[in-house]
Design goal:
By secondary structure, the chain is α/β, with parallel strands linked by helices. It has 14 helices and 14 strands. The longest helix is centred in the N-terminal third of the chain and has 20 residues. The termini are far apart. It comes from Subtercola boreus.
Amino acid sequence: MAERVVLAYSGGLDTSVGIGWLKDATGKDVVALAIDVGQEGEDMEVIRQRALDCGAVEAVVIDARDEFANDYLMPALKANALYQKRYPLVSALSRPLIAKHLASTAIALGADSVAHGCTGKGNDQVRFEAAVAALAPDLISLAPVRDFALTRDKAIVYAAEHNLPIVQSKKSPYSIDQNVWGRAVETGFLEDPWNAPIEDLYTYSQDPAIPREATEVTITFTEGIPTAIDGKPVTPLEAVVQLNRLAGDQGIGRIDIVEDRLVGIKSREVYESPAGLTLIAAHEELENLTIERDLARYKRGVESKWSELVYDGLWFSGLKRSLDVFIDDTQRYVSGEVRLELHAGKATVTGRKSEQSLYDFDLATYDTGDTFDQSQAKGFIEIWSLPSKISARRDHAAGGSIEA
C-alpha cells in the first residue's frame, strides 16, 4: 500500500486541487480530513463526497462543534481573548483543533505526513505546523500552495483540465474563513485600508443602522462559563449559537482592523463575532464584580499574552498551558448573572449580580449608613505618598524639579 498524507480539507478550490497536486508531487495517497467547527454553508457529506471525487482515497468527516466550543472557545472566553484588544481570534482558535485531529488521524492511519492549504504569507501555516510539531514531532507537514507554487490561476486551470467538481470564479472578490465563533473576510478591495467595508461583506450580522427595538438578554455564568440564557440552561455551543443570532440581529460583532500578522506584515481584516464580543463584554463585567483589584489588574496582562500566544500558533506551548492554569484559578468565583441591552451594534451591560460579589453597598454608598471610615483616608494617603515625598526632597536638593 502506498504511503499516505492526511490533508486538512475545506472543500474549497485550493484543498480540492491540492489532493491531485499532493499525489503528483509526493506519490502518496491522499486522505481528506474535514472538520466541522460550525462553519455552516455546505453539508459536510457533500464536502466528503467532493474530496473523493477529487481523488482522495479516503475522506473523513469529524463533527467537532462541541469540542471546539468546550475546549477552545471557553478557555478564550475565560481569557477575554482579544488580539490587539479587538480581534477575538476567530480563525486562530480553530487551527489547533484541526491540527490535533490531523495528527491523530495520521497516526491512526499510519501516515507519515499531513498537509494544509495555506499560503506562505499568512498566519495559518504557522498555526497548523507548530501545533502538529508539538503533538506529533515526527510527522512531516506539507503545504501545496506554498511548497509547490500552487497559485490560484494554476488551481483553476488544473480543476478545469481534470474536471474537478469545483465552482470557482476567477473574480471571486474575498477570502473567507468562518466557524461558530465568527467570520473572517480579507483580500479584494479590502486590501486598501482606506476603503470602507460594504454591507455585502457581512452574513453573521444585520445592518446596525436599521431602526429596530432593542433586545434584552441575561447570561448566567458558572465559574466563567455561560450556563444559561434568560434562565434556560445551555451548553457552551448552544450559548454561542443563540447569541450569534440575538446579537447578530442587532448588528453586533463587526470589527475592521489593520492587524499585525505573525509573519511580519500588516493585513487589513474584517471580522464578525456577535456571540464572541457579547460574551466577552458580559464576562469581563462579571469579573469586575467578583475578582479582587490586584488579581484583576494582573490578569489583564496575562490575557494579552495568552491572546498573542494563540494568535502566534502556540496553543500547545508550555507557557500557554501554564497561563491556562492561572486563568482557570481566577474563575473560581466568576459566577452570577449579567444583563445586557443589544441594540444598534452595541452590547451594553445594564446589570450584574453574583453571590460571590465583592461589591459592598454599605462601603460604597455616600448616604447615611456608610460604613467606610473616611477618617482613615488621611493617614493612608500620607503613607502611600511617602516614597514620592522622600524622592522629591532628594530631587529638589540636587537642583532638580518635577515637570507638571
